[in-house]
Every structure is written in structure tokens, then in C-alpha cells.
Specification:
heterodimer, A: 329 residues, mainly alpha, ABC transporter involved in vitamin B12 uptake, BtuC, 14 helices, disordered N terminus, B: 498 residues, alpha/beta, Rossmann fold, 2 domains, 6-stranded mixed beta sheet, 18 helices, 35% helix
Chain lengths: 329, 498
Amino acid sequence: MAQTNTETTKPQFDIFNFLYKYGTIILIFVLIIVFASANPAFLQTNNIISILRSISIVTIIAIGITISLSVGGFDLSVGSVASLANAIVISMFVWYGQPTLIALVAAFTAALLVGLFNAFMIVKVKIPDLLLTLAVMFIIQGVALTYTRGATISQNMIMSDGSYATGQISPIFAKLGQVPYIIIIMLVAVVVVHIFLTYTKHGRYMYVIGGNEEAARLSGIPVNKYKVVAYLMSAFFAALGGIVLASRVMTAEINAGGPYLMDAVAAAFIGFAVLGAGKPNAFGTFIGAVLIGILANGLVMMSVPYYAMDIVKGTVLALALAVTYYKLK
Amino acid sequence: MTLTMTDITIEFPGVKALDRACFNTRPGIAHALIGANGAGKSTLMKVLSGAYTHYTGRITINGNEVTIRSPKDARNLGIQIVYQEVDTALIPYLTVAENIMLNEFVANTDKKTLVDWKTIHTKAKDILRDLNVQLSSRTLVSDLTLAEKQMVLIARAVSTDCSYLILDEPTAPLSFSETEQLFRVVNDLKKKQVGVVFISHRLPELFDICEQITVMRNGEFVIQEAIPDTSIARVVEQMLGEPLEEQFPSRTSTPKDVRLQVEHLADGDKVKDVTLNVRAGEIIGIAGLVGAGKTELCKLLFGATSKKSGRVAIDGKEITLKTPSDAVRRRIAFVPEERRKEGVLVEESVVTNLTAASVNNFLKVFSFLDFKKERSKAGEMINALGIKTPTADTLVQNLSGGNQQKVAIGKWLVSDADIYIFDEPTKGVDVGAKKDIFDLVSALAEKGKSVIYASCELAEVKGISDRIYVLYDGQITKELSASSTNEEELLYLSTGGK
């Protein structure tokens, strides 16, 4: 019976399935054609690089969310963690005159501590991930604000005692946020995580846990260990995003990472459907970020005001979710 | 005022759950309804309480024919049911009073917008007092014990007009003293001329509390008798009827040294006192009915829950299993009862499922997966087990129940363990696949593996095992040699007979 089944279904062309698999990529090409015909400058190398640069921070943070999604979790604290890492890394240079290595280590350590706290509360105290990371999002947002005393940190800023900050951001660090390094960092993150999730035992375990935690546990998979790892990795990529952001703007604005959260969530969810993966995956997340980046860039070129951009992004996210959940139905 | 059900037939896709079943009872008595698993007793009572709409047959009350096509119809006729899963019918963050008065609440608030809290609490207190239950009407239901929740549901049932009360396996989760309390309430209800229908697997308690007993088998009515005129042994005989002959493979190998030794194991909950041992190349059966603690025992042996007391030793060495992954490292395998929830990954492919417990055997350097090796092993397993699947990449959710179960078992054959624990492996599996599963289990023992086969299908337990332990209320009550016992004796012991 099974065989006749495959024979009868194979020749049929399922339009929904086709759109589910390739819809995002087709949409990207359609957008490129539309925007390019509206404004030929859209296809210039400079603009393409500008798009890639603009999506790199979103992508890096979204990769972290993708990992938390792969174990069936959800990490909403990534935006705040990016803000915190941003504040710490800049303050290390500006306030304390530390070398690059120390600044980076400090930022990553703080982020990983947040990841550890997330993991502990989710795995041991058993708070649902969405709720816990929502709370942690607030906490860390507050921690970052308190740390910077509610002010923007920048070179030569006026300190509370009236003197000027003397620390300088190292020139090597300043390169991270510039083309081509910022794009290289993003691509390396995508490729490494894609390989990790798809081709290694650990990635397999994470997907299995995300698919059915109890069945995974009863197959002898150390579920808690992998969930801890997932939240640590999520925090790590959030911190990386925050650090790259710091290097790009060379300051620590108030809640600088916050706005990246929703874009990153959208990218990760759009990524579910790409090439029919049906689950969170790094390559799809990248494609999702590209889609959002092209939309934003193209619409700005077509003089759509920046403040209307969230309407478009939100609509794309809703569409992506509609496709994913309609498929599950 | 009598209630009769005649020629009740109901079909579900592929199964005739009830075949011209009959049932008669009257107010003021407790009527036991009994039968083996799948006999149709719960289905019959669901028909009576309006849970199914598509039955055929006649139901009369006091000689008047009635139609029951919805739970509301049943309630209007004074028929109330309390299901075994009490939590599904309760709202945990409301108080006892609100839960008791829920039906009235929904029915009578159309006219009024404001809730009259005082009346609700007074009424609820009155009902609880009538039932002689010590429970504050202002406690939150989430803070109650299981037995207390049951009382709340019984209180709800009698809060409106209640002439018949159906209790579906009410005692399975209760302790001894809680059961006493329930019986007191049932006896009170009988005095108030309520007709109680009591479904249970525990025969001795039915003989304590009931006046009449109806036995069902395979969806059909077998016999109705007055309790004083019958005996446990007679009821057991009627429940079984002519036993179905199943094909069990014969084995030539003989059990060797003791591999797994368990002494006085308890989890502080459902598993109370379990002592058993399994030899290499031996199949032991755990015979126990629903609620006896089989699943809990299996999970405890696999490290999925933690033990409170007792000792577990493998090959004479004492071990502690904290997690299932500890158990897997000790070469223990477990095929759980809840296949789709716990046994297989429905959204993953057959390959991923088959290698889920042994990914470590399919690795190259740096934990990279060896897809080729994985695929060829999976192909081998699909052929060996006769798993019917279009391709190895098909998602497991697209396979039939029996093939899913083969995948769940295959996972542990790929990983190659020493001790195999099966919990209800033939549940929801068709006859052909059942035979394949028996062959598989038997082949494991032939290869020198130790097998624990836990099931409430007593004929299967007897057919496949070398030795049988009877589990009743979390305790091993008897050890038997499979060749010297029969299904009747197993059922007698499993229902609490001594």
C-alpha cells in the first residue's frame, strides 16, 4: 500500500508545498527585480554590500535565537544581552582603558553568565522559556542601563566628576564593524552554526530534543545538558552581535540591542520554511534576514518613511508564521 | 425507577466497540461493571453519559424510552459521570465551591450578570456537608489531593438532580484510607436512592461495595448476577471466556546467570515494594492491570524517575541510575507505553529515529555524523524488522501504529543493549505486527539478552515469558513460572486475589 501511495503522489505538483519550500527565495528575487526596476542603483555593488552590512548584526543575533529554537526553547533576552555586551565592551575601552582582549572577554563573560542564569531557571526551576527570558530581557535591560548610569558611553565623554574619559577604543576593535569584517563574521557564524546543527551529533541531539523532549530523554539523550548549551550559545551570539554593533557605532547607546530582537525573531521564523526544512536552521535564518534587509533597503530607496518599516516587517513575520503553521495543520 | 440499556452498538473506524450490549440497574444500589481491557465497559458508560452520539439501541428510564445524544441530555435525565482523569473536568485555579457549582453557574447566569458568591458558597457547603466530606469550599482546587478532587466532582454530580452516578475506575489512584472514604460516600448515596455504577479492575472491592455485577467481554454483555450469588473466581472465568490462541514463538535457549537484581524498590509514590531478578537470556513478565504501577516501575528501572528506597544491581554490582542516559550507558533499553509521546520522534525520519539512541556509533572525527553508515544501518534494520515505510527518510508520523512501534524497538536494537524493558509493546498494534513483536522479543532472549515484558494483556504475558511477577498496587504480590500458571490465575492475582 505504501508503494502505490508514493507512485500516485509523486507526479502531483503541490503548489502549496512548492511555495512553502521556495517561496522565501522566490520572494527575494521578485523584490530584487521590483526594486531594481524602480531604481537601478539598488543593484550597485555598494548597495548590495550596504544591505549585507545592515543585516549582519540581525543575522548574528538571530543565529542565537535559532539555536534556542532548535531545542524547543525561545530566547527573548538576546536583545538586552546585546545591549549589555555593547555597553561593557565600550566601557572597558573608554572608562577603564583596557586592551581589546580584556574588553571582549569581559563582554562575553557577562553574556554567558546571563545564558547560564536562563538555562538554570528553565532547566531546573522549570519556568517556561518564553516567560523567563521575557523577565530576563527586562532585568538585563535594566542592568545595562544601570551600568551605563542611563547615559550613552562614547570616547571623550564627560564623566560624573566633570573630567573627560581618557580611554580610546582600539583601532583593531574598530575594524570589526567595518566592511568586509562585519560581513565575514556574519557568514562565518552562519556557516559554523549550520554545520554544527546539520552535520554533528550535537545538532542532531538538539533537533531531537526540540521535536520531542520526553522521547529524547527516554532515548538516553542528556536533555538538560543540551538545553544549557543551547542557552549559552544563544547568549554567546547575542554578545557577538552586541560587540559587532559596538564596533560599528563606536558608542554604547541606551538599549542599543533592543530593536534587533524583533528583526532577529522574524528572521529565525521566516527561516523555518526555507527549502522545506520545517525547523529552525541557520541557513534559513540567514535567508530570512536577507529578505528583511532587502525589504528595508528597497523601501527606503522608494521613499517609504523609516517609521512605517515595522508595519512591513511585522506583516512578513505574520506571513511566514502563517505558512509554517498552516503546514503543520 | 429503573434504567435499562438494550442492544447498544457503536462502531469506530475499524472496530466494533460495542456489539448489542445490555445493562440494567436501579436506584439505591451500587452496580459493578467489569471486563478485561477493551471489553467496552467505559464505552458503554460513555454512551449512557452522552459522550458519543452515534450509537444504536434503546435506553429506557422507568420504562420510558429516552434519547441521549449529548452530555446535557444525560444530565437532564439525572445521569452524572465522574471520569478517572479528574483533572480534565476541574478548573484548578478556581475554588472548591466554584468547581462544584460549575454546571449551575453556566446554566443559570444568563439572566444575571453578577455572581452571587454568598449563595454559591452556602450551597457548596451544604452539598459537602450532605456528603460528609471535610473540605473548605474556599480552597483552590489546585491545592487538593487526587482523592479530594474526586470528591469535588462527586459533589458537583450530586449538586444537580442526580439519580444515577457513574464512577469510572474511581479507586485506581486512591490509597487505602481514601478508598474507605469513597466507599462511605457511595454507601450514603445508595441510602439517598442514587444508583451508582462502579467500574473497577479491583475485584475484591467490588464485592465489598456492590450489590449487582455485570460482566462484559469484547463489547458484548456476558452476564448479570447478584454479588452474593457469585465469586471472584467465577467472575474472572466469565471475563476471559474462551481465551484467544496467540502464536508465541518457542525458544530453545535456557536462562543463565542473574543479570538484573532489584530489591525492595520504591519511588515513594506508585511503586511501593518491588523485588525481582532477570537472568541473561530470560524473559520475565510483569503482569498488572491499569493503575497497578507498571509504567512507573519501568520508568524507575530506566532511571526516568528517581528511586526512594531499595537497591538495583547489574551483574552483582549495585548501581544508581539518575537519568535515562545513565541507564543507556549501563546498556539498558526501554520501549515506553506512550509510543507517540515518548517512544518515537514523529516529526523525524525513520533513520533519525532508529539511530537516536546510538548516535555515538555513527560518528566521524569531531562528532561529525557519518550519514552513509547511519543510512545503511537503518536500511538493514528496516529489512530485518519488516518496517513498512516508503523510504528511510519518511517521517515516522506517516507510518502505521505497528510500524511506529517497530521503529521504537528498532532504535534499541541498533544501540545493542543487554537489558530490554518493554511497557505495553502491543498496545494499539495490529495482529500481524503483534506477531512480529513477539518474534523480536523472543529473539532477544535467544541472543542472551534479559527482557522485562510489562503488560496488562495477561495472555501475552503468559505466552511470551519464562517467569511472571504479578504487580498489584505497586507491589510484587506473586512470582510464578509461566508454564505452571494460566490466564485465569493471573487475572485473579492481578485483581487483588490472594
